[in-house]
Amino acid sequence: MISLKELQDEFQRAVLQGETEVLDEINSSDKEQREVLLGVYQNAYGLRLIEFIENDYEKLGLLLGDDQFEIMVRAYIANTVSHSPNARHYGDRLPEFLKTHEPFSNAPVLGDMASFEWALNKAFDAADAEFMTLEDLASVEPENWPDLNFAPHPSTTRLDLATNVQDIWQALDDETTPPAIEVLDEPDRVIVFRRDLSSMYRSMDYEEAMLWDEMSRGVNFAGLNELSATYADEDEASMRVAGYLKGWIEGQMLAA
Amino acid sequence: MDEQLQKPEFLGFGLGLRPDHYSDILDGEPDVDWFEIIAENYMVEGGRPLYNLDRIAERFPLVQHGVSLSIASTAPLNMDYLKDLKALARRIEPKWISDHLCWTGVHGINLHDLLPVPYTEEALDHIVERVKRVQDFLERRITLENVSSYVTFKSSEMTEWEFITELANRADCWLLLDVNNVFVSAFNHGFDPMDFLNGVPPERVVQFHLAGHEHNDTYIIDTHDHDVCDEVWELYAKALKIFGPVSTLLERDDNIPPLEDLEAELRIARDIGAKTLPEIAMAATQ
Ligand SMILES: [Fe+2]
User: Fold this and answer.
1) Domain hosting residue A120, numbered range
2) pTM attached to this predicted model
3) Which of A19, A28, B64, B170 has the greatest CB tally within 10 Å of its CB?
4) Are A34 and B188 inside 8 Å of each other by CB?
5) B90 vs A: CB within 8 A
6) Min CA distance, B274 vs chain A (Å)?
7) CATH number at residue A150
8) Under 8 Å CB-to-CB from A237, ≥6 apart: which residues?
9) Which of A106, A132, A165 is the last residue before a domain boundary?
C-alpha cells in the first residue's frame, strides 16, 4: 500500500504540475470520473492564488483588465509557490517578478503599480512601533542635535516610480478615467506611510527624498545638514532639514 | 477520561468575521452572539486589522479558526506558525482554537487548500501524534473540522466518521462538525449523511458550521459563496437533535452580502434551534 508520504507527494505534484500518477490511488465516484474529481483540486489551486493577488493588487487588476490580469497572474503562479501560512504574503514577490520577466518588464507601469500597491498594503498592517513626536525632539538638548539619529517607521516605503502611476492609481481609486500611461523624465519620488491607521502617500522633491534615504541609512542630523548644504543654499540648509523633519514627524513617518 | 470531558459553553449563533463588516459591527449592535476569525488573517504585525480585532474582542466572544495547521501533513509541524497561533490566542483569548482535518502541503509549500486524507491506520497514528503535540504546545485541546472532499482514496480502510471518532478519542481533541461539509461529501461519495451524524461522538462536538455550496450536477464544491440550502438546514435540525445545543456558525467567504443579510440568515438557524431544542428556546427568551 502507498504510504501517506508518497500519497501526499504525488497529490501535490498533481496540483502543482498536473502530473497524473496519483490517479492510481483515487476512486471514481458513482457519478463522476476520478480525473474530473482530481481536477477540482487542480482548478481550485490556481483560482485561489489568483484571488489572493486580486485582493492585494486591485488597481493592477483594473489597469490590466480581467483577461490580461489572469494571464499575468498565471505566469506568476507558474513561477512562484507559496511558503507562508498567510495568503497575504503570497504576492510579496510580484513587483520584482513584473520588473524582471518579459513581457511584463517591457511595461514599467506594471512593476510600478505593483510596488506602489504593495507599499500601501505594507503600510496597512506593518508593526505598531511607537512614532516619534515633536515633544520627543524638543526634549533633546540643542548641543546634542548634531548626533541625533532617526529611523523610518516600519510602515514606510520610499519608492522611485518611473511612470505616472500615482495619478493612475488615484484616478482608479476615484473611479474616474485614468490618464494615459507616461514614462516620466525624472522619477516620481514617493513616500508611502501610515497615519492614524490609514495608508497614505505623497511625492517628495529631490532634496527631501535624498535626505530621507540618507536618514534611513543612518546619517545623523549633522550629516543631513551637510548634505543639504551641498545641494542648495548653504545658509538655509539647517532650516530646510528641520522643516523636512517636522513634516516626517507630523506624518508619523519616524519611529520613536 | 470521558467523565472529565467538560465541553466549552454554548455560545449561541455566530458569524465568520469578515473585513467588509468591520464598521457595521463596530458602529452598530449586530444580532450576532459571537464571531469566528480566520487566524491567519491576523498573523500580521500591526495596523488596522489587529486594531479592529481588539475592539471586536472587547465586545464579542471569539473563536480562532485556522486554515494552515496542516495537521495531516507528513511535513514537520511548522513551529513558527504554532507560535503565531499561540500569540494570537494570548491576545484575543478565544473560546477555542480550531482547524481542519486535512493537509495543506508538503516540502515547505502551502497549496492553500484543505486537502483530503486517506482513512488508514497509518494516517490515524500520524495525525493523533501530531494533535497531541499541538495540544501540548498550545496548552489546550484543539478542535478539528471535517472538510468537504471531492475524491476518496483506494487505500482507505474505514469511513470518514469512523476515522474522525477514533482520532478525537485517541488524541483527546474536540470536533467542529461542518454540516454543509457532511452534506457535500455525502453527495460526492455516495454515503448517507445520517450515517455520518450518527457516527461521531456527541460529547466531542463543540461547534457546527453552516455554509452554502456550488452544485455541479455530478459533484458539489464547498464554495461558501451562496446561502445555506434547504437540505443543509434540514440536516442541521437533525444534527441539533443528535448533538444538543452546539455553538453554531454561519460561514461566508465569497460573494459576501451586507451584514444585515447574514444576520437574517443566522435568524433561520436561531429559529430552527428554538423549534428543535427547548434549551435554545429558553435561552432566546432570556
Ligand atoms: Fe467549515
Assistant:
1) 108-256
2) 0.94
3) B64
4) no
5) no
6) 37
7) 3.90.930.50
8) A225, A226, A228, A229
9) A106
